[in-house]
Amino acid sequence: MRLLGRGVRCVRGGREVFSGLDFEASTGQALAVTGRNGSGKTSLLRLIAGLLTPAEGSIELEGGEAELTLAEQAHYLGHRDALKPALSVEENLIFWRDFLGGEMSDAPGSLNEDLAAVGLDHAAQLPAAYLSAGQRRRLSLARLIAVRRPVWLLDEPTAALDAGGQSMFAGLMRDHLARGGRIVAATHGPLGIEAKELRIGGAA
User: Fold this and answer.
1) What are phi and psi of 119, to 5 degrees?
2) Out of 37, 63, 145, 203, which could bridge 1 as a Cys pair, Cβ 3.0 to 4.6 Å?
3) 166 neighbors 3 (Cβ within 8 angstroms)
4) Which has more pLDDT, 64 or 184?
5) Nearest to 24 by CA among 58, 53, 51, 56
6) Three-state SS for 72?
7) Would you say the pTM of this structure is higher than 0.85?
8) pLDDT, tens digit, for every residue of 171-197?
9) SS3 state at 172
10) Contact (Cβ atoms closer than 8 angstroms) between residue 4 and residue 59
């Protein structure tokens, strides 16, 4: 399975953000998308996620599920943590599992295991409104493992995480890659995993 982009051109608000961009991420590979502010890192992730349409070029997942779109085989984790404050930590994760569907574990205790993997099992019944910024990020990360998808699209994924959180997430990314997943991450700093750099030019 291979995530492949060829000749991708992005236009936002009538302005060309980037053009002629080629990239690929094969099984078990990570791409670290780098560049100055405004260079188009987030736009590229949104193009891959199907939230934007390329002005030119193509993006596809070769060898993926033929009946599913690329967007249905990818997790997109943006800047904001999409949580419902009134729901508990556990209820938020249940919501995302039901909403996203796809491959998930039905084994008893699997939900608690997913929360434990991000260090939130002790806060399962706590309303999300009471979580710190770092805890909210951890809860957003939990949905990456609660529903297995082959492609992770991550926009500054370690934002708000302390050193322990960054180490935890690096472990989750390594596990995902070891299972044959692919990662495309927009970042200004090191991810803590081996990744091929994809630098995008453009105005700051």
Assistant:
1) 75, 30
2) 63
3) no
4) 184
5) 58
6) helix
7) yes
8) 999 999 999 999 999 988 788 899 999
9) helix
10) yes
